[in-house]
Design brief:
By secondary structure, the chain is mainly α. The protein has one domain. The chain is about 45% helix and about 10% strand. The protein has twelve helices and eight strands. The strands form four sheets. The chain has a two-stranded antiparallel ribbon. A hairpin with a 2-residue loop joins strand 6 and strand 7. The relative contact order is 0.21.
Amino acid sequence: MTIPTRRVLAIASLGLASCTQVEVTTDSDSSTPTTGQVAPTVTPETTTVPTTAAPTTIEPTTAPSTTAAHQAPFPEDAAGLAADLTVTERMVRDSELSDAGARLWGARLQRLYRILSANRDWAPETVAAVEDDVRPDVELNWQARQDLSALVNSTTLATSLPAWRIREPLPVPELLGYYKEAEEITGVPWEILAAIHLIETRMGRIEGLSTAGAIGPMQFLPATWAECCQGDPANDRDAIVGAGTYLVQRGAATDLDRAIWGYNNSDRYVRAVRAYASVMERNELAYRGFHAFEVYFLSASGLILMPIGYEEPEAIAVDIWLADNPDALVD
């Protein structure tokens, strides 16, 4: 079965993990998986993000050095942020840069969008001032971030951290291979699957340790998995193929938006998935930037970086955990 078109909506994004409080690209992230919910009778709305013409009056200030991405000072104004975003978005897409090098720039990219989120009044000036070649990507990433943040901010912020293990994601080439294999099997564009993987568990970084609720890197309810898929939902390859299979069963061949809506019943979620996918469709190397995004959790105490190696078999009070890990509180 094939999807009739691979064009994705020009909406905007930069994310979170399954729309609870995990920061996939927005500055609020955590995850309440909803894969397998019943879709409504109303087709979700689709939106396009207008492209803003670049002004002639803004002169970008400083841009980071291309040799030390993780050490360069971060911008302190809208023009500097525009210059930094331009350089960083380009570096993530640099075909001569190794995956390891792109990871440094991807981590910086995530931080830059966090700065924009913290200074939302900069957004019109910043987005308009980035260079033409990356402006569509910045528009998409920014809009997605807003959509995902709205989903998180509509919930009560948690006073406990979840029963999760945070691990390294599989390497870029391996995951890309799984996405493309799933596209060959199901017809669902690989970029859509990668965007869902990013939003749900940050490319598999998040492993739920609870036996209740959704499981695995693509966050399947056990009953849903049993009905649609084969293999192990905790295995990245099986879960990615399973996500494509699920979307096909939800009608992806004729209405991909509606199928994505069935994954998580929210128009904002659909727009965010479409936006991330659109960025990767414009340039496959953009995936390397998303692959570098870390896990942040928006709690009642503030935004917390959940590092690789975090492992709590049961939910733990935020204040108790922060007492032993004070540096994890970033905002």
